[in-house]
Design the sequence.
């Protein structure tokens, strides 16, 4: 049994789709997701401060869509391994309660004992970390797995997982039941 | 420079005094703190479920008194070491925002990067852990320091620190400035 630390934003919660939808609703402009590839998260939108504004908006994290396959694969992983949800939530104080409620809604099988909201992730002791950010994976002492997001498209330093199906294959899960 | 994980409840926040004050206000009974020694946290009060009720009450964590010396000594520690505040906040969802606001008020020098709200503390990677609970110190791989609280009075398994002055002496801090 391994201990696997799993990030929320862009790994379990589809913030990219959420940014695009929020942006269209707020500014009436449909941004092409292809233009976000390889540039820093939150940039690439005509209004420069729009995304930071969304991140500080009540309800933003609570209403994020779930990334396809994350529920089924994390449930299957949790049956063979010790999983911890590790989210850098401290930068956005509103997100604390919203993220906990979001997890309770979409991942009710995860115990509060296995949830960590932090700032820096350097304090996390685990065997694997699934995350979309170089800054979180860089100082990790275990095995880093880069979950693909537009902003990390050009990063070549890590073993990459593009989908939750690839995560299931990496951990050799043969039975993943639909939720 | 060492990394020091510091618990909040009963280490930075004086929950014992807070329990006694809340209890007196709610039930009109002054409980003698000496009767709480060596028995589980929250027990020893005539109304069995009172403390659990307080822990789930809005405002309880936000209004907790600060333990004497914690501000000065943690500030001095943070200038020589990497400190992380690690609180098992996830069991009480209301406490998340309240604990963050409490830290911002009483410990404004602590960055959000160095705050961790978790369930189980087994995931914490640090050199030292200052905590009042056996369950948190038991699986810690670094040096555990037991901060004295009534409920742990009989525990003899750890190096004990009774006050923040003793923590300062343990880490050989020679300049601790009053806040």
Sequence:
């Amino acid at each position: 049994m391994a201990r696997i630390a799993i990030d929320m934003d862009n790994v379990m919660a589809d913030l990219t789709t959420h940014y695009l939808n929020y942006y269209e609703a707020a500014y009436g402009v449909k941004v092409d997701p292809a233009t976000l590839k390889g540039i820093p998260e939150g940039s690439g939108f005509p209004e420069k401060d729009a995304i930071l504004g969304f991140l500080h908006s009540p309800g933003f994290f609570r209403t994020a869509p779930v990334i396809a396959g994350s529920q089924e694969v994390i449930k299957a992983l949790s049956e063979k391994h010790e999983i911890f949800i590790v989210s850098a939530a401290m930068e956005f104080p509103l997100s604390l309660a919203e993220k906990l409620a979001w997890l309770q809604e979409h991942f009710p099988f995860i115990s509060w004992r296995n949830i960590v909201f932090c700032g820096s992730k350097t304090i996390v002791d685990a065997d694997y970390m699934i995350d979309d950010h170089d800054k979180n994976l860089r100082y990790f002492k275990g095995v880093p797995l880069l979950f693909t997001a537009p902003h990390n498209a050009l990063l070549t330093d890590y073993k990459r997982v593009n989908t939750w199906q690839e995560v299931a294959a990496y951990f050799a899960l043969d039975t993943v039941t639909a939720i």
Summary: The helical segments of chain B are 15-27, 50-55, 70-80, 95-106, 134-137, 164-170. The first helix of chain B runs from residue 15 to 27.
